[in-house]
UniProtKB/TrEMBL annotation:
SUPFAM superfamilies: Metallo-dependent hydrolases. This is Peptidase M19. GO terms for molecular function: metallodipeptidase activity. InterPro entries: Metal_Hydrolase, Pept_M19. The lineage of its organism: Bacteria, Pseudomonadati, Pseudomonadota, Alphaproteobacteria, Rhodospirillales. It comes from Thalassospira xianhensis MCCC 1A02616.
Length: 340
């Protein structure tokens, strides 16, 4: 079944409902106690698939496995609302049943323990996407808030493992040189699941035009991030803020290489992302654009994604192009990366 042509009935005659809506990166509290009902915000936004973070470089392997186990169990406990996406064909199954498809991603590679053999292990647990460094350098790649180093020899082996392991290769949070090396080395499309053009966002975590073009050259997609600090909006990001970044990327590399990766970060009292401790000043350094005075931390509300699709139509985008931006571009990448 081709998920990109599955029929959709608009909620109202005046609203353009995309054929498939894909949010390439979302965060829930990395805690087994996290209520899975947080995903209902994506259901309310007519999202068909969301990729949820299950671990970062500073999280222990044991903690990441607890999070994966808890999230998988809670998704399975609600078969009337959610479906764990294990393979490409599951996207169409979830869509046909009106369920929110959920996949996982890893932000970093420390949890791989310097073993490319770990990639297929995490893939079997539902991890569909990975980037190699979370802000800081490690044995695999450089991070965007550290010395700009090339991809290491181990990193090249990890790229091959991801290409062969049924995951999407991501470069968000990765250092500039390492990201360019990854995109040259990869034999499959590479994405920035949640990153914004630096010329507009200004932050060091954003990506420059060369990185955007290199991503498009792989056949990949730039997921426009809705995080206030990176979108550079004075208040919580709204539809015009998202469109400003979408327009820039489309003009630079074309509509086939732009998507959505909001990077939502809800908080829940009593949950703990870092039970093993974390040096926040190291991973989010004040001198690199974090902390008080560095811009707000609000995120575009996924419930407003239907309004974003409507606004793109009003702004002159053709319905087929809106469908690409809202999800079909990432579906194309997933089909190539998730299947042998």
């Amino acid at each position: 079944m081709n998920v990109t042509t599955a029929p959709n009935t608009p909620a109202t005659p005046s609203r353009h409902r995309p054929a498939f809506t894909w949010d390439a990166h979302a965060c829930l509290p990395l805690d087994p106690k996290t209520p899975i009902s947080l995903l209902d915000n994506y259901v309310a936004g007519d999202v068909d698939y969301v990729c949820v973070n299950v671990g970062m470089d500073m999280n222990s392997v044991a903690h990441i496995l607890r999070v994966i186990a808890a999230f998988r169990a809670k998704i399975a406990a609600h078969p009337d609302k959610y479906m764990q996406i294990e393979c490409f064909d599951d996207l169409a199954i979830a869509k046909s049943k009106g369920l929110l498809g959920v996949g996982f991603d890893l932000e970093g590679s420390v949890m791989l323990q310097d073993m490319p053999e770990m990639v297929p292990v995490f893939a079997k647990l539902g991890v569909k996407q990975i980037h190699f460094a979370y802000n800081r350098n490690n044995s695999v790649a450089g991070g965007c808030h550290d010395d700009d180093i090339p991809l290491t020899a181990l990193g090249h082996a990890m790229v091959r493992a991801v290409n062969n392991g049924g995951m999407i290769m991501d470069c968000s949070h990765t250092g500039r040189q390492s990201s360019l090396d990854i995109m040259r080395a990869s034999t499959k499309p590479v994405v920035f699941s949640h990153a914004n053009p630096k010329v507009l966002g200004g932050h060091e975590r954003c990506i420059d035009d060369e990185q955007i073009k290199a991503c498009a050259d792989t056949g990949g997609v730039i997921g426009i991030c809705g995080f206030q600090r990176f979108i550079k909006s004075p208040n919580a990001p709204e539809v015009p803020d998202m469109i400003r970044h979408i327009d820039y990327a489309v003009k630079l590399v074309g509509v086939d290489h732009v998507g959505i990766g909001l990077d939502t970060m809800p908080s829940v009292a009593g949950t703990n992302d870092f039970p093993d401790g974390v040096d926040r000043a190291y991973y989010w350094p004040a001198e690199r654009g974090y902390g008080p005075g560095a811009g707000g931390a609000a995120v575009f509300d996924p419930k407003k994604l239907p309004a974003l699709a409507d606004a793109l139509i009003v702004g002159g985008y053709k319905p087929d192009d809106v469908d690409k931006i809202m999800g079909e571009n990432f579906i194309r990448v997933a089909k190539e990366c998730w299947t042998a």
